[in-house]
Every structure is written in structure tokens, then in C-alpha cells.
Amino acid sequence: MADTTRTIWQQDLSVDQQLALNTAAVHLADEFGGIYGRETIERFLHTSYDQFAGRSTVPNFLPLLAERFARQRLQALARVEGHHRDGKPVVLFLCTHNAGRSQMALGFFTHLAGDQAVAWSGGSEPEDAINPAAVAAMAERGIDITGEYPKPWTDEIVRAADVVITMGCGDACPIFPGTRYENWDLDDPAGLALEHVRPIRDDLERRVRHLLDQIGVTAR
């Protein structure tokens, strides 16, 4: 059944995309094979691909995005199910488009926390790319966020988080019992010039530093 499902799912893909996804499945199996079986790994890879297939403007980049997102989801699931215990706090930053506020917050958190904590981000309506003004504003602080990409959230990612920071996603933000939630009321930088994004960036840095202090992580 698994092979039949995979064949149906791949029938609309180019040969290069199929090969890239097969390679991605091998990579993920090497990383998670001791925890999850082939069927689970391929299901996460395929559903991750579907998250981007309808909106990506660069089809050849889709398998890489799918692999990266599937890896994050499998890491989250491993934490939820108790397969991965490193004691590090996990923070999830959520906004509407995952292109501005949550990406800048993630950038500051990763830069300041280093390997002391884990952080992810997501959006209720992900854009195709990160806001260029947000990229430029963070670059002024010496932080490169161009390696990230707008993505949705999934249940396992939210459930794996110790703290969920919401920024404007409203009723779309997922709620799970036992998780700490905090809403940061910040302007959306979408469509704003760099000079108007800088105050949002600076506010985010202050909030991230305060959050790190609250969860017992020393900022670098």
C-alpha cells in the first residue's frame, strides 16, 4: 500500500523532483530510522511537500523545502513522544505570514541563545518569501535570516513547544493545554519601508532578551 500511495503522489512530479525527494527520504531515514519507520518518514516528507507545492514559485526548490520542514516536524514529534530528551527549552514564534515578525524574533533568539535552546517559527498564511525589509533590518544587526523560509505550523510542532509566542495570528493560533502562551502586540512590517521596520525589530530584540531571561537562557 505504501508503494502504491507513493507512486500516485509522485505521478505529477518531474523526474528531477522525484529523484530529489527520494534522496531526501534517504537522508531522513538515516537520521530518524532508529525512531520512525519508512512509512512515517515518507508520509511526513510528502505532506511537507504538499504544504509548499501550491504556492512556491521555484518548483525545483520544493524537495529541499520539503526535506527541511519534514526534518523539523520529525524532530518535534520525537520530542512530543519522548524519543529526544536534551533538556533544552523549545520556543515557537507564530505570526500571520511568517515573513516578518516571527522571522526576526527567530533570528534574534537563535543568535542570542546559540545551542542553549531550540526555536522554530510558523505562520497561519505563509508568504512565498521573507520580507526584504525584515532581512535588511536584521542584517543591520549582523544577523542573516535569508536561510529561513515562510512555513505553516503543524500540531506536532506546537505540541513540542514549551513556549508559544503569537504575533497577530488571532483565532488561527493553535491552543494546546499545558503550553505557555504569550501574545506580543507588534505592528506587521508587511509593506513598510526599512525605516519603519527598525522600531519593530528593536522591540522584538528587547522582548526576546526578556524571554531568554525568563526561561533561564543566558544571552550571548
Automatic annotation (TrEMBL):
InterPro entries: Phosphatase-like_N (IPR048716), Ptyr_pPase (IPR023485), Ptyr_pPase_sf (IPR036196). Residues 89-214 form the Phosphotyrosine protein phosphatase I domain. Keywords: Arsenical resistance. The keyword Nuclease does not apply. CDD domains: LMWP_ArsC. Coiled coil: none annotated. NCBIfam families: MSMEG_6209_Nter (NF046112). This is Arsenate reductase ArsC. It comes from Phytohabitans aurantiacus.
